[in-house]
Design goal:
- The protein is globular and about 50 Å long.
- α1 packs antiparallel against α2, α2 packs antiparallel against α3 and α2 runs parallel beside α4.
- It is 87% helix and 0% strand.
- The mean pLDDT is 90.
- By secondary structure, the chain is an all-alpha fold.
């Protein structure tokens, strides 16, 4: 359930605030669309290799690797964006690549520990926990970025995933 909460808190904040982040980072409408598309593309690409790896080894290790990677990407994305205009787009792709597979692998990990008669209840619980995080996460991130500036969106997300990495 902690994976579902993390994805809700972090990715929920992303989906709510990333277009504003990209706009404030200097992207025009087409740039914002490309930014968001690169996250989705990275997420789509990341599902297969991380899923395959998690089928062959302890899923928690893969979840930990993804969580650490999201934490790092979250902390360096503002630096990448400052260093080079394309850094924002590279950071978007890397974020999607590492953050988007976490929910699916967390669900797979949960399924490894639930009896065949408990899949529906466990999945329902995961979705409800995710939804709670997706409601609260954007509010927290909005408060953080309101106080410290829009560049703190990804460090906030990185911090959420860093806490998750410690938990894992």
């Amino acid at each position: 359930w902690f994976g579902a909460l993390t994805v809700g808190l972090g990715n929920g904040a992303f989906w709510s605030l990333a277009p504003v982040f990209a706009r404030d980072g200097g992207l025009d409408l087409n740039g914002i669309a490309l930014f968001m598309s690169l996250v989705v593309l990275g997420g789509a690409i990341g599902q297969y290799p991380f899923g395959k790896i998690s089928d062959r080894m302890d899923r928690r290790k893969v979840i930990l690797a993804c969580a650490v990677a999201v934490g790092i990407v979250g902390m360096i994305l503002p630096v990448l964006a400052e260093m080079h205009p394309q850094g924002l787009l590279l950071g978007a792709f890397l974020f999607g690549l590492t953050a988007m597979p976490v929910y699916a692998i967390s669900v797979a990990n949960m399924n490894d520990h639930v009896g065949a008669d408990g899949f529906v209840e466990a999945s329902t619980c995961m979705l409800l926990v995710y939804a709670a995080g997706a409601v609260v996460g954007p509010m927290i991130a909005s408060a953080v970025t309101g106080v410290f500036g829009f560049w703190t969106l990804f460090p906030y997300i990185g911090a959420v995933y860093a806490v998750f990495a410690v938990f894992v």
